[in-house]
Write a structure and sequence with these properties.
The protein is built from two helices and ten strands; from the N terminus they run E-E-E-E-E-E-E-H-E-E-H-E. The chain is mostly beta strands. The strands form two sheets. A six-stranded mixed β-sheet has the order 2-6-5-1-4-3, with no helix packed on it. The protein has a four-stranded antiparallel β-sheet with strand order 8-9-7-10. The radius of gyration is 17 Å and the shape is elongated.
């Protein structure tokens, strides 16, 4: 391989002094091998051993020892609120839709089909642009994708 490449990801809190940042959406943070471009324009090849769900605050370790911070990009989301947040969260989970849980609202990627269902259940939706860092799977990792998108579930 020519040029720097990343075969390793350092966990949040296990590194310091990143030389650059790589801003990625939730979907872009699920990868194994891909050419990535940093905020500065610096590009490198990410070549991980297996497909990985990257988290904001982690860092790519380049072959030359430099670190590139992973940052969650702003993306189009629905902020979901309503009188019975637990019920709304259940319906979101039942459709295998990634969800970021807060005490007074939920965040999901904008999807008109899911949005309509939630409004029918009494939810209030607000369109926002924000970083998306949804909950992991039942065992603290892994991803699922909505059936309506025709994607398959990913397990680690």
């Amino acid at each position: 391989m020519s040029g720097p490449f990343a075969e390793r990801v350092r966990e949040a809190g296990d590194w310091s002094d990143a030389v650059d940042r790589c801003v990625l959406t939730y979907d872009e943070r699920f990868l194994r091998r891909k050419r990535l471009t940093c905020v500065s324009g610096f590009a490198f090849l990410c070549d991980l051993e297996k497909t990985t769900s990257l988290q904001a605050g982690e860092a790519f370790e380049l072959s030359d020892g430099r670190l590139i911070e992973i940052e969650a990009a702003d993306e189009p989301l629905y902020s979901v609120s309503g009188p019975n947040l637990a019920r709304l969260a259940w319906h979101i989970g039942n459709r295998h839709t990634p969800c970021q849980v807060h005490s007074d609202h939920l965040l999901i990627q904008r999807d008109p089909v899911i949005g309509h269902m939630l409004e029918h259940l009494g939810a209030t939706l607000s369109e926002i642009d924000a970083p998306f860092t949804p909950e992991g799977g039942a065992y603290g990792h892994g991803r699922t994708h909505a059936h309506e998108h025709g994607a398959t579930a990913h397990a680690h």
